[in-house]
Amino acid sequence: MTKHEQILAHIESLSVGSKISVRKIAKVLRVSEGTAYRAIKDASHMGLVATIDRVGTVRIEKKARERIEQLTYNEIVSIVDGKVLGGRRGLYRTLTNFAIGAMEVDDVMKYLTSHTLLIVGNRLEVQYEALQRGTAVLITGGFNTSKSIIDYADKYDIPVISCNYDSYMAANIINRSLYNKKIRTEVLVVDDIVKDIDEICVLFEGMTLEDYKYYAKTTGHSRFPVVNQDWRLTGILTSKEIINMRNGDCVEQFMTRPPIYAQLHTTVASCAHMMIWEGIELLPVISPSKKLVGVITREDVLKAMQVIGQQPHVGETINDQIAKHITINNDGIHLQVSPLLTNQFGMLSKSVIVAIIEETIRFEMRKYKKLEVMIESLNIVYIKSLPIESDIEVNYEMFDVGRNFAKLEVNMSSGTQKVANAIIMCQLID
Fold first, then answer.
1. What is the pLDDT of residues 326-380, one digit of tens each?
2. Of 151, 205, 351, 352, which is most buried by a Cβ count within 10 Å?
3. Which part of the chain has CATH 1.10.10.10?
4. Which CATH number fits domain 312-429: 3.30.450.20, 3.10.129.10, 3.30.200.20, 3.20.10.10?
5. CB neighbours (10 Å) of residue 107?
6. What is the pTM of this model?
7. Which residues pair with 116 in a beta bridge?
8. How far apart are CA 301 and CA 192, in angstroms?
9. Looking at residue 380, what DSSP letter applies?
């Protein structure tokens, strides 16, 4: 284990809320301050530590991807451009919902929990009651609060924040941030589908063809990542490379290098593009320290993209909203121009036309192959602008379709008038 990895392991072993400094880490683990500094920066990127104003760097709870929609109080301070009045040590905690204190004190108390943020004006009695129930407080209107409330917040590490927005605007901004976080959870990354590996699923550089044959027979796999003694990825060995090997030949001499790999934060869509473009079936996954942590296969990627396509979205993207206006039936693909789809001149937006193609091309390709589609190139000519409430018909013509690609033309028309014409080349994910 390298010094860098030892520091990361030490940081991960610390309890949540522990203070961390470069000098302290360097002294405890007997490493240079430069090494300690780089490791702490990496720990920050990994979500293990956070720097809080006037507190310093502290160990925080690493948020799992399924909880990424939860904001921390520290993020709330940035979102509302606020000022922390008290409870700074509690800024790394997360909130699950918020409430507006626009009612009597007894009624407000029904909505308060330890993971709730209370948005309230200069009502000291409501602020104090909220703190007693472990609820953080956001004071709107730029008001301050009493010293007793600040002291209570500091004692129990419950954040009290002040901002210049009114209650409605503050709630709206926070709600929008939660909404954006929810959309991000729908973007599949490698971390969601990666398969853990053990020693029988990898080859070490010093192994031979006999080892490959044994592992292939035991696991049923034909592709293996190759690692060194520190489990750092150095290459890939597949059935193509072993054709010219003899039983005693070393894996290191015949493996493919440098290997193509993905990281845990890489999106599944970009992995699909990479695997098709490079014609590979297996993609190793590495950690920030370049160590092998798992693998993904083309089958894993395709299944993941199919599942996410079938799941209802928690937060809607722009394409989701446009898709609601598209009607697909036996007569073809139709759409009516609504105010949401227009630009500042009241005409159908050019970007919406591209989104219509993105949403409908999958339906068209299902007539030929039941595959996922990824647009590689799109050349479009805009012919006529359309006003609100115009009806559009979308028609596709297939030029050529192969195993991994397709070329087709799309025509959009309104009545007898052509609206747009596009030539598309797309990848088919099988």
1. 888 777 789 888 888 888 888 889 889 998 888 888 778 877 765 678 888 999 9
2. 352
3. 3-59
4. 3.10.129.10
5. 10
6. 0.45
7. 97
8. 10
9. E
